[in-house]
Amino acid sequence: MASLSTFRFLKNHPLIVNHKLQALRRFVLWKVSGRLLPCPMAVVLNFVNDTRLIAGPGMVEGNGNICAGLHEFEDMSFVLHLLRKDDVFVDVGANIGSYTILAGSVVGAKCLSIEPVPATFSYLVDNINLNEMGENVQAFNIGAGQEDDVLSFTTQLDTENHVATDSDNNVNTVEVPVRPLDDIVGDSEPLCIKIDVEGFEMAIVEGARDTLTKQSLLAVIMELNGSQERYGYDESALHKSMLSLGFRPFSYCPFSRELVALDGKNSRTWNTLYLRDVQQVSERLRTGPEFRVDGYHI
Q1: How many whole angstroms separate alpha carbon 163 and alpha carbon 176?
Q2: Which helix (H) or strand (E) holds 243?
Q3: DSSP at 105
Q4: Which of 154, 189, 279, 297 lies at a 20 to 30 A Cα distance from 258?
Q5: Is the pLDDT of residue 202 over 60?
Q6: Are 169 and 152 in contact (CB under 8 A)?
Q7: What is the pTM of this model?
Q8: Which of 161, 269, 174, 165 is closest to 225 using CA atoms?
Q9: In this predicted model, what pLDDT tens digit does every residue of 53-63 receive, in sequence order?
Q10: Per-position DSSP letters for 153-171, written without gaps between them
């Protein structure tokens, strides 16, 4: 996370309104240690409730969670309020496992966690082991896509790692097996899916038609950051595809536990909540347990 965007993130994050200086101090210490230590190492930070998170120097998820408690406050809170023990959560683009920890350890849901980049996957596995949630999580070191394939992924762009294109010819890449999400999910009945794959979302949706029509599925958290163009996809077509599957776009207010209907994608954040059976989702959110993070009970 670049310094300017981090300062903007800290200024606007709802969990640090009352202690911005403390959050800024955490950020500075994190950046300085990464620059000054001869061999910068991963750190273990307290996360939500009694969970912990391992993050390496410079990692966006590490920066966000260290400075603000929850990097993606609205969407992470949504997962914590929505899910219950033994529900099924699918984490596509799991990265180091922030969402997996929330679902699998804090809530006790069953997780299918997919992370293609081997170095990042190793952090995911470490976080699964650290939080002793191996029984709740199946971790897959593969990519998800429209069909069985082997694709090249960038390896040094942290949360922006993606399926490589011709414009990535000077970037380090690794070849990774890719499977349709329908094959990965199989007979599981997911209640919530998070898809964060840096523009490859349409391919995921095309390979998940059976999964996306399962009656159990109430919510999809979809990243829409404009990067679909690198693969020739139209973001508006992806939005229409989700509407055709019976989903409607919303944002979430964690403090009041209220959903806000949207006309299109969420323009305030990169993620949009696509929901169906909104009444059931609203009831789950209203009755979900509180969680504890950075001094707040939410």
Answers
A1: 10
A2: helix 235-244
A3: I
A4: 189
A5: yes
A6: no
A7: 0.91
A8: 269
A9: 998 876 877 76
A10: EESSSGGG--B--GGGTTS
